[in-house]
Amino acid sequence: MTEITDTLTDKSPPLTRVSTGIDGLDEVLDGGYLARRNYLVRGSPGVGKTLVGFHFLAAGADAGDQSLFINLGEAEEDVRRDVERFGLGSEFESVPIVDLSPSSGYFTDAGDIFPPDETEGRSVTQEIVDEVRAYDPDRVVVDPLSQFRYLSTDEAHFRKQVLSFLKFLKESEATVVFTAESTAATPDDDLQFMSDGVVTLDYPSPSRTLEVSKFRGSEFQGGTHAVRITGEGMTVFPQLLPGEYQAEFSPDPIPSGVPEMDRLLHGGLERGTVTLMSGPTGVGKTTTGTQFMKEAAGRGDRSVIYLFEESKATFMHRLEAINMPVRDMIDRGSLAVKEIEALQLSSAEFARDVRREVEEENTGIVMIDGIDGYRLSIRGDSDRGITELHALGSYLQNVGVTTILIGEVETVTGDFRVTKDEISYLADNVLFLRYLELDGQLRKAVGVLKMRASDFERTLRGFEITEYGIAVGDPLTGLRGVLRGEPRWIEDPNTSAGSDG
Questions:
Q1: Which phi-psi region, left, alpha or beta, contains residue 255 (left: φ > 0; alpha: ψ -120 to 50)?
Q2: Any idea what the Cα angle at residue 169 is, between residues 166 and 173, rounded to 5°?
Q3: Rounded to whole angstroms, how far apart are CA atoms 128 and 148?
């Protein structure tokens, strides 16, 4: 048997683990199932219970373990066809299937339909015993074990039969996964009590979920985790726990390359901080965020932009029109631009992609454009999505990645608001851009509201996007009432110390 060893403490004996074969589920289970124990996979029809068993046995066969599938529901040819559908056919080819599903002859030959008596129950049990002894498996899947209820005379007999069966498999030194339908009409509380671990699958539209409620002898990651099933099988996306990730890094400022902008920020955005860039539509938030990435690319740093509110083609056309070489940055590998389609990802799937960028591609700057689009595009509850966005920001802080969040306010001018959803608490730094109506013209200004880790310039500066890129002017010291939406010069603007740049 191929095994993974894990040690809980220095004094505890090592635990022997076997992989579930499902990407992400081993992480939830702190390394995989504990060997020679039994695990219940439960849920309503269609949630993927049998697929969990397929993965477990296919992984065992691929690792050289002897696997055995005991099937009480479907015919063997249907099982193998299902396995092929999920791309596991080659690994599963060597897995023997004990087909105990009823044949058509059971109906045509019986004459009358009666509940099976104890003799029939014993014959099925004996067949299982014979097959287990013949194959001496390391891994066993029973699908579904709840069928034993129909081979039992009453509930007491069922519980006794299941306990005896699981004990027999344990004495055979097999690791067992068994499934059970869980509905209001057929509760499975007794099976949960008898198992060493309980994995619950659910499909509350629009997202599939997985939850572990019991795992004897080991830690596990609680909470609800996202699940995706495709033609390549099942993938689990664990909840992100920021506290489990730490990295040493120097909180050096990341400059924008625009001298006046960097003076506002006292050098730039510190590494390992979250910055909210706030302002109305079209004011230049995305362009400003990309400017930091352009400067970082010159130092060999990699960045990634997630577009929730704009197509990649439009983004690249806009930025290249103002001398921002995003295509060259992409070609050199210093920038990745990812367009996120609405309702295609859960927040956990999105967080996993960000983690892959950071941990596998060594990405140093992550920009999410924008928060409103994220809330609308991520599948599931939007409030929970914001909570998980906060967790993602904390993770990025802990590993020294600079995060830029693009937040939009509805008003073009008027009373100042940082965001329309009051989510500025997510950010260490707040950089805001806004429109000004001055002398019958619409102009722009940029300022800093807060920086937790450093000092900053407490003035507004003129802001403009030209064909050559971003231009930031001198401090607008001659203006008052900008944040109230009533800007006015307090002296002749031609002799003022400030200008709009």
A1: beta
A2: 135
A3: 12
Residue 488 falls inside a structural domain? no
Total domains in the fold of the chain: 2
Q: How confident is the model over 185-199, as a mean pLDDT?
A: 89
Tens of pLDDT, residues 81-96:
999 999 998 889 999 9
Q: What phi, psi does 431 have (nearest 5°)?
A: -110, 125
pLDDT at 329: 97
Whether residue 396 is found in the same domain as residue 422 = yes
In whole angstroms, give the CA distance from residue 51 to residue 229. 9
In which residue are the tokens 């992400």 written? Answer: 24
Per-residue pLDDT tens over the stretch 22-54: 999 999 999 999 999 999 999 999 999 999 999
3-state SS, one letter per residue, for 230-246? ECCEEEEECCCCHHHCC
Query: pLDDT tens digit string along 85-126?
Result: 999 988 899 999 998 876 655 444 544 433 444 444 446 778
What is the extent of the structural domain holding 341? 250-473
Residue 496 maps to a domain: no
Domain boundary among 239, 259, 291: 239
